[in-house]
Write a structure and sequence with these properties.
The first copy, chain A, has ten helices and no strands. The first copy, chain A, is mainly α. The structure holds a DNA duplex.
DNA sequence: ATAAAATTGTGACAGTCAGTCATATGATAG
DNA sequence: CTATCATATGACTGACTGTCACAATTTTAT
């Protein structure tokens, strides 16, 4: 948990720390990140660091929060404009997240961040979902989806479907940022997968 | 890379080390595993350890290899007996892997192993796929699947389909071992997801 | 059998790290 | 002016990994 002392800090100092964290994370993957180096770069004392943060996890939270802040408006907009089409929404999500690939610094930070994230960690997408919970009108992303076009309509089915799509999205994002695969090709394969999920893999008899 | 010196070791000593590794991994998650403790338990010197292994990664390889060895026969059998039904095969894979949940020690090791595995790490399933490459007659698991019942038949489509199924399988395995969710419930949801992928999520018009 | 060479074993050591704690400094209020 | 509270500091502890010069052992050659 990021402590309240961090938010009490004068803007200048807080920014200095955030920048040091970003610098460290663009050079080392999450498990190699050194608090020693960060306090050196940010020019704060060891004791101070532990007065602001519990541990490295807090630093990850800062970074993910930063990325989330940068894209939350566009995601909100994508949800609004998709008219409840769950498949279209997931394609838009991919595009919004891979926007970060264009900025070299952001790409590196995301790479190092994702590289060592635990396999079942919630990460950005779930972080965003949590953020959305704060929105008055939304409880879950799922509620956005128009069920009229879906074959299965009860909550359990919709949940299964979003879980499948989220898994495929996560995996594609990893292929782009961590494995460094060509974004266009990954997108192509991602869309193909969505198509399969949409219309089914077996022939109708 | 596990060094050849490790395999030159007398059986007794090698077993002592493997047991020490298993003991350590059943008590600590992969990132907390201590080489110090392992060499103490196995009663070998620090220098020796580094003559057998490069680093912790090798220990993970030992363990995954052990689990793979335990299940490879059953997986091979499952592939043979499924008559090329890719969906049935993936359900069998889930069942074979979750067998390990019944043994408390194996459950703990797998939990600690999976907990910190990098999100896009190959893991057991891919490890097994690689093993299969060693088999004379097999190149990839995919070649086992009968494409006649599939709507899409070219290589690209089959690859996309197996990737989707593998992702869903991985996620379900994590839910069982790491998140500690009820195996029966996870299985139910896993089968539901396979059903959706199989027959499609949208209504036919 | 003996010497030489290759392999394996050893633990002290250097360098790094995270987290703690007694103490110092600064700010605020009575 | 002093008491209280919030913040800052860096030395310190204990733990960790990977290395290296040297010792012991086994293998090979003579």
């Amino acid at each position: 948990m990021i402590k309240k002392t961090f938010y009490n800090l004068p803007e200048e100092k807080r920014q200095r720390i955030i920048e040091a964290v970003m610098k460290e994370f663009s050079g080392s993957s999450a498990d190699k990140v050194s608090i020693n180096r960060i306090i050196k770069i940010a020019d704060i004392s060891r004791g101070s660091f532990y007065q602001y943060f519990d541990d490295k996890v807090d630093l990850v939270e800062i970074l993910i929060g930063t990325f989330a802040d940068m894209s939350i408006d566009r995601i909100y907009q994508a949800l609004q404009s998709s008219n409840g089409d769950i498949f279209y929404t997931y394609i838009r999500l991919f595009d919004i997240i891979t926007e970060f690939e264009k900025d070299e610094s952001q790409r590196l930070i995301l790479k190092n961040l994702l590289k060592n994230i635990k396999a079942n960690d919630s990460l950005i997408l779930d972080y965003l979902t949590n953020r959305f919970k704060g929105f008055e009108k939304l409880q879950k992303i799922e509620e956005y989806f128009n069920r009229d076009i879906l074959k299965y309509k009860d909550d359990y089915d919709v949940k299964c479907l979003t879980q499948i799509l989220t898994q495929i999205l996560k995996n594609s994002i990893f292929n782009v940022f961590v494995s460094g695969k060509d974004c266009g090709k990954v997108r192509e394969s991602y869309i193909r997968k969505i198509e399969i999920i949409k219309s089914g893999a077996i022939i109708k008899e």
